[in-house]
Amino acid sequence: MNKTGPFSVKEAHDSTGFLLWQVTALWQRKIAASLRSHGITQVQFALLASLLWYSKKEANITQIMLAKHTKLDIMMTSQVLRALEIKGFVKRQTHPTDTRAKMITLTKKGTECVWKAVPDVENADADFFKALSSHHKQFNTLLSSLIDKTGDNHVD
Q1: Residue-wise pLDDT tens digits, 41-98
Q2: Which residues contact 80 (CB under 8 A, 6 or more apart)?
Q3: Residue ranges per domain, the chain?
């Protein structure tokens, strides 16, 4: 019988997935704290910030475009955008050329919120990732590589 049970590693810290889980949980806690005063969740922030980012180069941004950009599930994206619409942060309208698609735009309230929240999130990120010091750029490259290599560039 295998003494470690079903696990392929002897120690928990030898599991890349478990380490990633722990880092993600710690990072999410820090980001959530930075967003508390803005009255939005991390998922709401990701969609609002992505919408602001995208709007610099795209006029007709759809829910699916945001879901792909953030790597969020389409249904979750739709539900969160609906909640943001109720809060008055976004408008959802029928796309001008594709009546099946919803076009998303930031409202003045949403724009103000994300402009105030971005510096707080960026400061929280900088503080959290400062432990990487000179390896920060390499870490980002490795994360990008994982995203690119998963082949999960489509949205379910």
Answers
A1: 999 999 999 999 999 998 889 999 999 999 999 999 999 999 999 999 999 998 888 8
A2: 41, 43, 44, 47, 72
A3: 36-117
Give CA–CA dist 26/45, Å, rounded. Answer: 17
Fold of 36-117: Arc Repressor Mutant, subunit A (1.10.10)
Q: To the nearest 10°, the Cα dihedral for 135, 139, 140, 141?
A: 100
Buried residues in 91-126 as b, exposed as e (16+ CB within 10 A): eeeeeeeeeebbbbebeeebbebbeebbebbeebee
